């Protein structure tokens, strides 16, 4: 198990871009398979599943900027009510990040991904250890025994999810976490008003250009 974690982490880091990154506010390259990014049936989702705007959030549980920005995103999701959120685990900062992603993705099998994602994002700072993450998950309302069973049973599927995320990151030239795809536009850290404006621009591109 430990060897798999190390190999998965190394694979994720190997997929980090070594060329000019996609800048915040840029559209993804033409021909990008957006369904593969935002409609992968194995991805956990939040917000409104029938929402008219999709946000794909690439994040790491040891990224302090992800934690800070997620508060703005969570607020927008609740206030707006018509946004579909897709969680894209991209554990690149440490082996503990990979461990956290695995815990969260294993919780998906009992319908508790969002609970564990929020709990791990709620750990203060940016250097959470495996022990801190494990304690946080244990203290949540998740069925921990089932989570352990699902983690063991579905480890291949779980690793495949964030391997696909990492491959998409490489193809899209993302620079680091957090990165958000709002429809097909790339953004990094955003304020609440920044998220709201980006969503409004997707809904009414003409109004955005006039302003």
Tell me what the structure shows.
This protein has 211 residues and is an alpha+beta fold. The chain has one domain (2-210): 3-Layer(aba) Sandwich (Glutaredoxin). It is 53% helix and 11% strand. A five-stranded mixed β-sheet has the order 1-3-2-4-5. Helix 4 crosses helix 8 (155-172). The longest helix has 18 residues, at 155-172. The radius of gyration is 17 Å and the shape is globular. Residues 1-21 have low confidence and may be disordered.
List the defining traits of the structure above:
211 residues; alpha+beta; Glutaredoxin; five-stranded mixed sheet; 10 helices; 11% strand; globular; disordered N terminus
Beta percentage is 5-15%
How widely separated are the two ends?
A: 53 Å
Overall pLDDT level:
87
Report the strand count: 5
User: What CATH first level would be assigned?
Assistant: Alpha Beta
Q: What is the H level of CATH, i.e. the homologous superfamily?
A: Glutaredoxin
In the residues, how many domains can be counted? 1
